[in-house]
């Protein structure tokens, strides 16, 4: 599983060199630190390492989910439409989460229904909000003809993103039965991020907002731990 997250970034650079030259010129291929041919070879090395380490940890299911999502997303061109782009991002994150909780459980037994529910809930969160990454990529997406929510519905997509982020920020602590302090912090952060996407636009502002969004995603991943700590107290 260690190598798997790098597959998305690597393959995205191979398939979207034009876009990366506009949006992410510091990446390996646009900055000429690695060639496309070398990147393709490295991708297969990472796939092999991912399957090897995942098999060792009893996590082949999670690796398979991520790798299938990667192939469908990049090689089959499903990243060019906003709906399938968001859906496959969510599937990939579910794979990451499933693999992480399986390893954390220190057992090869299937995760229980409660934990599985947490993973699926997180997948829905990503599916309904992950298009925020496209706001600062809009120029590059237009250059390669990618039909993202940000390019097709620039104003509506911001409103929907803000509404979704705010809703999840309030709902997750309730769904996961989290204590008051972490719930308040998470809800305030979600409200702050939602407000940024509505009130601020432009590449730099959207990059900063996306950074805050990812901090919120990270906190969302560890929120259930607060419930477990309370139950152990």
Q: Measured on Cα atoms, how large is the radius of gyration?
A: 18 Å
Helix coverage percent: over 70%
What is the average of the pLDDT values? 82
Q: Report the span from N to C terminus.
A: 33 Å
SSE ordering? HHHHHHHHHHH
Shape: flat
Count every helix, treating DSSP H or I runs of 4 or more residues as helices. Answer: 11
Poorly predicted parts: none
Look at the helices and sheets and give the structural class: mainly alpha
> Which percent range describes the beta-strand content?
under 5%
Q: Report the sheet with the most strands, covering strand number, pairing sense and barrel closure.
A: none
Number of strands: 0
Protein name: UbiA prenyltransferase
Transmembrane segments: 44-69, 115-136, 182-199, 211-227
Subcellular location: Membrane
Keywords: Membrane, Transmembrane, Transmembrane helix
């Amino acid at each position: 599983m260690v190598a798997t997250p790098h597959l998305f970034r690597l393959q995205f650079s191979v398939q979207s060199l034009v876009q990366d030259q506009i949006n992410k010129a510091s990446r390996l291929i646009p900055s000429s630190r690695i060639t496309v041919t070398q990147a393709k070879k490295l991708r297969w090395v990472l796939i092999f390492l991912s399957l090897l380490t995942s098999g060792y940890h009893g996590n082949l299911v999670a690796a398979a989910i991520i790798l299938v999502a990667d192939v469908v997303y990049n090689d089959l061109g499903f990243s060019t439409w906003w709906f399938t782009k968001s859906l496959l991002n969510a599937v990939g994150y579910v794979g990451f989460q499933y693999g992480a909780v399986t390893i954390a459980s220190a057992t090869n037994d299937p995760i229980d229904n409660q934990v599985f529910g947490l993973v699926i809930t997180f997948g829905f969160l990503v599916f309904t909000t992950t298009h925020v990454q496209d706001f600062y990529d809009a120029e590059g997406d237009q250059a390669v003809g990618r039909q993202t929510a940000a390019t097709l519905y620039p104003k509506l997509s911001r409103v929907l993103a803000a509404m979704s982020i705010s809703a999840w920020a309030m709902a997750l602590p309730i769904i996961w039965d989290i204590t008051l302090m972490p719930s308040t912090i998470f809800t305030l952060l979600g409200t702050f991020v939602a407000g940024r996407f509505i009130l601020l636009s432009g590449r730099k502002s959207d990059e900063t907002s996306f950074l805050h969004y990812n901090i919120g995603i990270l906190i969302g991943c560890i929120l259930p731990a607060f419930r477990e700590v309370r139950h152990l107290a």
